[in-house]
Amino acid sequence: MLITGPGWSGTVPPGMKHFPSATTQSFNVLRLYFADATDQPVAVALQQKFQAVPLSLWQQGQRTYAGRDPGAIYRPVPAKDDPLADFKLIAQMLKENRPSNIPPAERVRFEKLGLMQDGGLEALPVPVRQAMERAEAQGRQMVTQASLALPGIRTRNGWVGPKPSIGYYNDGDRMYRASLTLAGTVAVPASENPYFVMQKEPASGDFLHGDRRYTLRFEKDMIPKRMPSGPCTRTTSPTA
C-alpha cells in the first residue's frame, strides 16, 4: 500500500496499491477481520508484519522505520486558555491541509474570518474577534452537549445505534460529525463497525457513572443485529 500526499509524482512499485491523499496529513486505520477463534492467530500474525516506511527507504530495501519526533514536524498547538485557540488551530490546519473542495460560499466566509491566511485573525476588527470568542465558547458547549446525547437510531432500552450516514457524513449534519469526533476521534461506516452506545441507565435515566459496576448480558435471541449503512440523505432517524 502506497499513501502519497498532494502533488506527488513518481512511479508506484509493482504490486503496490496506491492511495493518494488530498491533504498533507492523513489518519489511517488498518483493520483485519477474522472469522473465528481458529482464524484469529492468523490475523494477529499478519498484523504484526505491518510496517510504515517512507517510499524512498523502502525502495532501498529498508523495511523498518522508527518514525520522527512529532515536535519536529508540527507547530505548537495554540494555548488552551487562548479564547481563539480553536479558530487558530483551524487556520493552521487549513494552511497545512488546504482542502480543494471547500464550497465557494464557505471559502468566502472563512476568508472574512481570517482563517485562510497567516495572521488573519489578528488583523480582524476588535468587534469581530470578540464575536468569534463568544462563538468559540458557545460552540464548544454545543458540541459537548451533543456528544452527551448522540443522535441516531434509539432503542426502547436506552441504546443508541449510529445514523446511517456515520463514516460518510453526507447528510449535512455537521453537529453529528463534531460530536462523534469529541466522543471518539474517528468513526467508520457501520458496515465495518456497528457502534452501539449507552450513555444512561435505562431504569433511572441517569448518566452512567465510573464508580458503579454494570453487567451487560445478552440472551441468545437478543444479540444486536447489524446496523444499516451506506449513503444517506436523512437528517433524522426514527425511534425504534
Summarize the structure.
The chain has helices at 40-47, 55-58, 85-96, 104-112, 126-147, 174-184, and strands at residues 2-4, 18-20, 153-154, 159-161, 197-198. With 240 residues, the protein is mainly alpha-helical.
Give an account of the 3D structure:
With 240 residues, the chain is mainly alpha-helical. The chain contains six helices and five strands, in the order ββαααααββαβ. It has helices at residues 40-47, 55-58, 85-96, 104-112, 126-147, 174-184; strands at 2-4, 18-20, 153-154, 159-161, 197-198. The strands form two sheets. The protein has a three-stranded antiparallel β-sheet, with no helix packed on it. The chain has a two-stranded parallel ribbon with strand order 1-2. The longest helix is centred in the middle third of the chain and has 22 residues, at 126-147. The protein is flat and about 60 Å long.
Structural class from helices and strands?
A: mainly alpha
Shape: flat
Number of strands: 5
How much helical structure, as a percent, in the residues? 25-40%
Order of helices and strands: EEHHHHHEEHE
Strand order of the largest sheet: 3-4-5
Task: Note the gap between the termini.
Answer: 41 Å
Percentage beta strand: 5-15%
Radius of gyration: 22 Å
The major beta sheet can be summarized as: 3 strands, antiparallel
Overall pLDDT metric:
83
Task: Characterize the quaternary organization of these chains.
Answer: single chain
Number of helices: 6
